[in-house]
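Notes from the 1:1 (GR / supervisor)

We went over the backlog. Supervisor wanted to see one worked example end to end before approving the batch request, so GR pasted a single chain during the call. The sequence is below; no edits were made to it. Supervisor asked that the structure be written out right there so they could see what the output format looks like.
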Amino acid sequence: MYFNIDDLSIYYEKYGNSNNSIVILPGWGNTRNTFYNMIFSLQENYTIYILDYPGFGNSSIPKADLDIYDYTKIIIKFLEYNNIINPIIISHSFGGRISTLLDGYFNIKINKLIMIDVAPIKKKSIYLKFKQSIYKLLKKVSFLLPNTYKNKYLNKLLSIFGSTDYKNIPITMRNTFKNIINEDLSKYLKNIKTNTLIIWGLLDKDTPIKHGRIINKKIKDSALITIPNSGHFPYLDYPILINNIIKEFLK
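Structure output shown during the call:
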């Protein structure tokens, strides 16, 4: 199914037929398909909605640069379009940025909130700062190169220094990606009043466990469950365990 807003066509899927709604906010990229095990486990008791963000999967590519507030407003319009009131939100990685703003900034009423290895906190490691500084310095050298070599040089720098997410998106989406990762949303976490379950893989290198502990500390009504021997996708590493944890939380 499709939901249209402005010049965007947003693809989404709906499962189940219950008065209790769950909206799954997946991570960055085309990751909707990674949630089917969870959906099939929950659809008997809930109506579940999951979508492709603009620029990914079956949704259209935005013509203008977006930021995380734009993405969140799209989700708010999606809730209104489907008459989804007081939903349960399950968010993973990038989806946690949206769920943070839904509750902590836009004050959207949420029944319960589940955050799985979410990413509302901007990465500030010394290594990352050093890597970015080297990249910016080497990029300046391109102005000294002939045009025939400039593009090859810049593409080589990108292959070395660019993140996987950045390299795998259309060129027209790269400013949007920069807008999103440069926004630190940790200041809104303290505003979240919803009963929140935080699930985190202890081996996660994309969003380290220290971020999970910060989020747990900032959200007053929250609990943190850590998953040993799991990385950024605990719901894929241990699907039965995660599904059972979620079901218990939602009782």
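Supervisor's comment: Residues 126-140 form the longest helix (15 residues).
Batch request approved.
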